Amino acid sequence: xxxxxxxxxxxxxxxxxxxxxxxxxxxxxxxxxxxxxxxxxxxxxxxxxxxxxxxxxxxxxxxxxxxxxxxxxxxxxxxxxxxxxxxxxxxxxxxxxxxxx
Amino acid sequence: xxxxxxxxxxxxxxxxxxxxxxxxxxxxxxxxxxxxxxxxxxxxxxxxxxxxxxxxxxxxxxxxxxxxxxxxxxxxxxxxxxxxxxxxxxxxxxxxxxxxxxxxxxxxxxxxxxxxxxxxxxxxxxxxxxxxxxxxxxxxxxxxxxxxxxxxxxxxxx
Lengths: 101, 158
Prior knowledge:
The complex is a heterodimer of chains A (101) and B (158). Chain A is mostly helical and 101 residues long. Chain A is built from five helices and two strands; from the N terminus they run E-E-H-H-H-H-H. In chain A, a hairpin with a 6-residue loop joins strand 1 and strand 2. Chain A has a two-stranded antiparallel ribbon. With 158 residues, chain B is α/β, with parallel strands linked by helices. Chain B has one domain: Hypothetical Protein Ychn, Chain: A (3-Layer(aba) Sandwich), CATH 3.40.1260.10. Chain B has six helices and five strands. Chain B has helices spanning 18-33, 72-75, 80-94, 100-109, 118-123, 141-147, and strands at residues 8-13, 37-42, 113-117, 137-139, 153-157. Chain B has a five-stranded parallel sheet. The two termini of chain B are 26 Å apart. The model of chain B has no long low-confidence stretch (mean pLDDT 91). Chain A binds chain B through residues 59, 61-64, 66, 72-74, 77, 81-86, 99-101, and chain B through 1-3, 26, 29-30, 32-35, 95-98, 102, 105-106, 109-111.
């Protein structure tokens, strides 16, 4: 089993948390750093929204971001460049979205 | 910047049947979601997908498409294309696939460059006002090749 460097937090082979209960902001911060992202309050707002969506059992997609009312797609790409949904969900400690859109 | 070997995907969309248009859109969006640059060059019938008046009325092809499992003669009957298209759109909506106009907005906001082919625009007597507002410009094929002039670029004709 793999763990996040220097912690006991269990992750899968792609680096996504296996158990959300092991997530906290420090864990998120560490994943963000590895992805080259400096977290700001705005980043955390988006992360919390993503976590709420997952808790509410709503599938995450880029169309869902457009309809969210929380942020638009342009800002999403600006906050998490290089694959926004893939990277933000990793930081949020939630599973990688399986949708093709 | 993407960590993959593919850095940029260029799509040439020459058809306006729903299955082809969505193939290009899904692959372009998917590229951006992986951190890969993406551009679409709309040429010939592909231009229908970026014409304000036509883009939400695209059809699936029921004739000459053996995978539809409709006899060709039946596929050619009036209303068959509309019926098959309606059924397909219903399935697509279930999967949360956006309609063409909304999909183009998503692509543009995601940083996908959308180009119209100059030759085809001239041939079909189209004006810039006939095309979507999110269009990045009208290019010659030479201009489009210039967009491909970097390491790790792949080009796909649909």
